[in-house]
Automatic annotation (TrEMBL):
Coiled coil: none annotated. The keyword Iron-sulfur does not apply. Residues 320-370 form the SteA-like C-terminal domain. The chain crosses the membrane at residues 334-352. One of its GO terms (molecular function) is ATP binding. SUPFAM superfamilies: Thiamin pyrophosphokinase, catalytic domain. Residues 189-230 form the Thiamin pyrophosphokinase catalytic domain. NCBIfam families: division_SteA. Keywords: ATP-binding, Kinase, Membrane, Nucleotide-binding, Transferase, Transmembrane, Transmembrane helix. One of its GO terms (biological process) is thiamine diphosphate biosynthetic process. This is Thiamin pyrophosphokinase, catalytic domain. Gene3D superfamilies: Thiamin pyrophosphokinase, catalytic domain (3.40.50.10240).
Length: 374
């Protein structure tokens, strides 16, 4: 393997993809690459990925590295951390097998990750997941004791201007298969006109489909300036102690946001807002809903999500994976039926029309002559 490209560096993959371009070399520090990060990298198609961490540890079945390699993008793992100090943005790097070179200087060596390596780690992960599940349940129960107010409803909900009562609400998180799922339910969106809530980068996901978010919720670390300036109501997610990391960014843009201090994830509070303001139905796209999702997210427990889903479950529909369940294609049988249904009235019109009657009489006579001659 011998590759050259400009380096784009960021220890946070979701920040890097905003600057990364096709043909660049992505330099990241991301253990157990999740599918969302993998999809964002694959969409851009860097020439290679240098990771200072192991892209898959075998702790749990993270499939991001598998997807990247299947897409034909090389990964060099466990490159020396010092690369973030030694290399400036835009520096031309050369990769020879696992060796990283800048000019005449060798920056360090990493391990070229192969599909065989990843499959071995996935096998290990299937064994380790039993212990991870045990630890995960313990942590979730611990968090649940602290976050029970989410279920009991003892929360000060910020005042929204967006009308939600008795309307459908679509909550979009930029999670796995969000594009396919949004495409699959696009006709529903056009017909029902639900309230559109983007959770952080989910606001940009909506705008990719020319849909303007009504509300943007999150800590504002992965949403674009364009989305924040779209005119949507902004609800900054604050921690239970009141600290709101995204508040300064939003206020620096001249936007006056609402602040919602609640434990859990930003998608949890999006559901709480929809529920508290009387939504008749909540449709969720790309949300985190299982253990693997939360292990990938780095959250030790999913108590808040568990409790919130218990609370809103009667009106919640999870659209995640709907694109895999149902492919919008027209069966040949239905095409044949449609053709026949259209042909019958056309044939009748042609038969009774004075202009075409001589033609059909001629055809009929030809048939009679053919039959009599047999």
């Amino acid at each position: 393997m011998h590759l050259k490209g400009k380096a784009k560096l960021d220890k946070r993959t979701k920040n890097l993809v905003n600057r990364l371009r096709k043909g660049d070399i992505a330099v990241i520090s991301h253990d157990d690459i999740d599918e969302v990060a993998a999809n964002s990298l694959i969409d851009i198609r860097p020439i290679a990925i240098l990771n200072t961490m192991p892209s898959i540890t075998g702790r749990y079945p993270a499939r991001g590295a598998y997807k990247i390699l299947k897409a034909g993008i090389p990964i060099i793992d466990e490159v020396p951390e010092k690369i973030f100090e030694d290399v400036k943005e835009g520096t031309l790097l050369e990769i020879k097998d696992g060796t990283v070179i800048s000019g005449s200087h060798i920056l360090g060596e990493g391990k070229v990750l192969t599909l065989a390596d990843v499959n071995q780690k996935l096998d290990e992960a299937n064994e380790n997941i039993k212990q991870e599940l045990d630890d995960f349940v313990d942590n979730t129960l611990e968090y649940a004791k602290k976050e029970k107010d989410v279920l009991l409803g003892n929360l000060e909900v910020p005042p929204l201007n967006t009308h939600i009562l008795n309307r459908h609400v679509l909550i979009v998180v930029r999670g796995s298969s969000y594009k396919e799922d949004l495409r699959a339910i696009y006709s529903y969106i056009q017909e029902q006109k639900p309230v559109l809530i983007g959770v952080d980068g989910g606001a940009d996901a909506l705008m990719e489909f020319n849909l303007k978010p009504d509300i943007i919720v999150g800590d504002m670390d992965s949403v674009s300036d364009e989305a924040l300036q779209s005119g949507a109501e902004i609800v900054v997610h604050a921690y239970a102690n009141g600290k709101a990391p995204g508040l300064e960014r939003v206020e620096s843009m001249g936007i006056e946001p609402l602040v919602f201090a609640v434990p859990g994830t930003s998608e949890d509070i999006a559901m709480i807002l929809a529920w508290e303001y009387g939504a008749s139905l909540i449709v969720a796209v790309g949300t985190h809903s299982n253990m693997i999702d939360f292990l990938e997210k780095g959250r030790k427990g999913m108590a808040s999500t568990f409790l919130v889903r218990l609370k809103v479950g009667s009106i919640l529909i999870d659209a995640r994976g709907v694109s895999q369940l149902y492919k919008q294609s027209l069966h040949s049988k239905y095409l044949a039926q449609l053709f026949m249904a259209a042909l019958i009235p056309i044939t009748i019109l042609l038969w009774v029309s004075p202009a075409t009657q001589p033609f059909f009489r001629l055809i009929w006579l030809q048939i009679k002559i053919l039959v009599n001659s047999i």
